[in-house]
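Folded chain entry
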Amino acid sequence: MTTSASAHFRSLAALAALAVAGVAGRTAHAATQQELEAKLDALSTQVGELRSQLAELNAERRRSAPPTANTAASITGVEAAEAENKVAWFGYGELNYSRPEDDGSATTADVARFVLGASYRFDDKTRFVSELEVEHAVSSAADPGEVEVEQAYIERRFSDQMFGSIGLFLMPVGLLNENHEPTRYYGVFRNLVETEIIPTTWREGGVELQGNADGGLRWNVGISTGFNLSKWDATSAESLEEPLGSIHQELALASAGDLATFAAVNYTGVPGLRLGASLFTGDAAQGQPGFDDNRVTLWEGHARWNPGSWDLSALYSRVHIANTAPVNLTLVGNPALIPEESFGWYVEAAYRAPLRNQMTIAPFARYEVLNTASRYAAIGAGLTPDPLDDTDVFTTGINYYLARGVVLKFDYLQFLHDDRSARFDLGVGYQF
């Protein structure tokens, strides 16, 4: 390399170092993964420009010197490194053990999830993101497991603060749906409100626009597929355990005669604080016979605050399904009619105490109240089902972070006002 090229390269390296330092300083105020990605994408653009200039210098050097075997090997190595930089692998998983206090025969052990994801960056503005998940270890006609594509979308960066996505992606709803890896929530299992009221992990196919403002405001708007009420199974009371989960289509030959719209906003302008809300609405009739104007509307509000070592959070969500009375009249006599409303809320507190060798222990407590069928539309005396009783749940436990990306968990869950058995849970989760 010539002296001028060497000096040019040193200048580029210094510029890259300054860019990294600048992003590191700014990310001290970022509290969401999405905002961090926005800043990292901006840095990626700068690094890409530096790489292009370096490639031009290398090309100039190759033109001024005859090729040799070593030169050819060096060029091949650079091309391989550049190809490798375009692909990023990630994943997470969890194994758990659950023992009801009053029924040892119902104890289970499970590889609950095994997830591998990959992203491919086509250029500095365009990338593909995917996740493939296996639930319950074995998937076949005779086994309980499932294999599913959790995400598969193209993301395009329009500017440093605006992105667009098209494909199958997670809904920007609540605290857990976009951040559902086991290292990112407390307890062995995901909380009940963000499982039975808000289906988790909830994804739809569609188009989304996302923006990040300098003041800490993130917003999402989009059009997507929605629910299909004709999937409701009135013959099984299990439909009432997760009403929206039972009519979720997961983009598997999804009926798309009726599309949905969604919007979300999150504010993180104050260090350690996140305030947000979201709304999803769309007709679930999907043009199916016997269904008409069955709009599903879900809204929620959430807050998370991290004063010092404390991690405090709260969420409230409500669901309304319109025009259920005509459908329920055709289902009278079955154990599970379609509820008109459901709701849930929780409050949670954890204290993260650092230990030696970068380990952390985090005791936590969570109180939840939810009802998956809090109201039914009237269909006549003696025919309208009674609402279900509220479910009150108190969970306490410990997350022990053994290493960065590895967590051991223990919790004890109590149902306060019904006859379901309390249970002990043990788990291990990882994320990389």
In short: The longest helix spans residues 33-63. The helical segments are 3-26, 33-63, 69-86, 193-197, 243-246, 325-329. The two ends are 38 Å apart (CA to CA).
